[in-house]
Every structure is written in C-alpha cells, then in structure tokens.
UniProtKB/TrEMBL annotation:
Residues 21-129 form the Core-binding (CB) domain. Pfam families: Phage_integrase. InterPro entries: CB, DNA_brk_join_enz, Integrase-like_cat_sf, Integrase_catalytic, Integrase_recombinase_N, Phage_Integrase-like_Recomb. The keyword Plastid does not apply. Residues 1-20 are annotated as: Disordered. This is Integrase. Keywords: DNA integration, DNA recombination, DNA-binding. Residues 1-11 have a biased composition (Pro residues). Residues 181-397 form the Tyr recombinase domain.
Amino acid sequence: MMPPPDLPAPLPAAHDEDADAGRQAAIARNLRRHAEISADSYARNTKRALDGDIRLFQAWCAGHGHCSLPADPRTVGDFVAAMAAGEAVEVESRDRHGRSRIRRLAGVRRPATIERYLASIAHLHRAAGLGFDRTHPEIRQRLRGAKRRLGVRQRQARGLRWDELLRLLPPEQPRQPPYDPFWERLHGEERGRRKADCRLHWLASLRDRALLLVAYETLCRRAELVALCIENIQRTPDGVTVFVERAKTDQEGEGRHRPLRPRTVAAIDAWLAAMDWSERERLLGQGQARAAVEAAPSVAAKGPLFRSIHRSGRVREAALPASALPVILKRLAAAAGLEPEAVAGLSGHSTRVGAAQDLRQAGASVLDLQAEGGWRDPRMPGRYTRALDAAQGAMARLARIQEGEEG
C-alpha cells in the first residue's frame, strides 16, 4: 500500500510533548518504510482501493475532530455507524492529471463495503507499527447492527448469457470501412467528418465483437480482459488459446490458458487486421511513401489486444481502460433493444457472471466453475448460480415428479 501523501491527523495533545512528537515521527518512518518495501506487493487496483478507503476515513475523522492514527475503537465504531447510515463525506483526491479535487461521497454503504473499510484501516495501523483490534465491542457491535439492519446480501451484476450476448454482438464487418462515392461531392471538412464517423463505427464494431466473445469465453474480470496483449494469443495445431498472465487471485503471475472457439478467433483476427489497416492509413495520411508503409512492421504484432479508438477513426496505442467495458456493454444492450432495467443492471463482470450461469446449467460443478473463472472461494460462483441451483434442487425435482413432468 502506498501511504497517503499527507500524514494522518496529529495525536491529541498530551502532557509529554516530546514523547508525543517522537511517536509521530516513528509512525511517519514506519509508513515510509512500508511504502518502500511493499511498492511491488499489491495490484494497482488494491492500492487504489486502500488509498481511497484511508482518505475517506481520514476525512471523516477530520470532520468530526477525531484522530485517525492511532484510531480509538469508539471512533472506528462511530465511523461504521455513519457509513451504514449513508453520511456524506467530502474527500480530497486527485484526478488523472494530478490536479486536486474535492469529491462528496454519500449513500448507504453495504456491510461488505464497510468490512473492506475496516480491513484498510487495520492495514494502515499495521503499516504504522500500531495495533488495531477489529474484534473490540465498539467495532464488532456496530458492524453487527449494520448487518442486521441492511442485510448482508450483495448486489450482483446482471449475467449476460450466451443467447442474449448474441443479440448484443455487433455483426461481422467488411475488410475495410464502407465507402460512399457521394462523399466526394461534399465540402472537404464535411467529407472528412463522414469518413471519420464511418471508420469509428467500423473499428468499434470489430473491436467490440472480439471483446464480448473473449470476455465470455475466458471469464476474465474486466481488469484482466483489458490487460490482455496480442502476444498472449497462442496458436498451435491443437487450437488457439489466450494466456491470462495475471488475475485478482493470481498476483504472482502463474497464469492460465483459456481456449478460444473458431468464431472468437475469427473476430480477433478481423480486429487485428483493422488495427493494422488503421495504422497504415495514418502513416499514408502523414505523407509517407506507400512502399515504405507497406514494408513497415505490423502494429498488430504486439501490444494491448483491446485498445481505445480516437473519434477521428484511428486506433490508439493505449489499452482500453477497464472503466470503458460497462459503458460498451450498456451501449450495445441499448442498441439491441434490451429493457432499460436490463441495461442498467449490466456491469464489467456481466459476461463473467453469464458464462458461469451457462456453465452451471450445462452441468458444470462448483469446482469446475472455480477452475474456469479463477475463483478461490466457492461461495462466489455459488452466488452467481443460486437461482439456477434452486431450480435444480430437491423441492423443484419433487414438484416436477408430482406434476407428472418427470417419470
């Protein structure tokens, strides 16, 4: 974990100011040392979550006049109650350009989120060399009350199952973007805009088709999906696989191979060809000789597999951000005519959830789901398939027998 840029709130005044100052200095040294030795120990998303949780807790403490490090159990208990009640907190953070901004965070936090906050607070205390007792009655009873009042059931992303995924899947595209001779009659600026819009739609359709199919077949989390590289596609006489180098439950990079069906491989190849075409068109537009452009190495040989597309109709070098995945899914779902409630329920993990549900209905065991999706805890895939399991349970089978549906 990277410590917050600002040191925690100072300790309350005490009769021995020298000892107090010495303790604060020791805390600061411990935090700096922890940041140094753990720089490569945590995934980027884990660091981001820890930093955000700690900033939230410190901002809440500052607003109520409490000390955040070391935190008194009563302070932490009151924080738990405030989060469960949906208290708003103004938190200072930085945008992607490094500029300072104030965010107002409000709304009822679910017990699972509050437990994550507690884990982050405990982590901060360990990093500072301080003790933290999560089992203290002030904390335990507050958390228990939140669970009883709010319930522990977590919101689940809507599963995007195979039949529905086919509805969202963009159609196959030609090898080059469509061209309308009428464009040549238009003013130069308007003609350029029409061509750019056409290329943008063409490239996005090819990318999104490959993206959805790969997401479903690999059961990748959204961060794992956008981290895939072209080099991860491995072609052998036995078939084509994609190698998922790292996962949320595989931070050390043992990796796993996921098989790809011919439909998916064809979609990937079409997207890679379009990516290469886009880059060569860019070089030609810069005035480079056609012979030199044709002899240049393909940009589709390495680098991020799924990339952002500029509004001018050019593929960027940067990987598609993970936050773009739910946006793409909802856009495709709305275009496919899904109900607004169904569109709103989609998230970056919807393909993962839907694939797990299809596997379960096809007879896969929970252990099979764990192996396919990289889950360590069987409760996670069990949550995704709870409704399907109920339909196959003992009472459901009894009902079918009694109604004459089964012999």
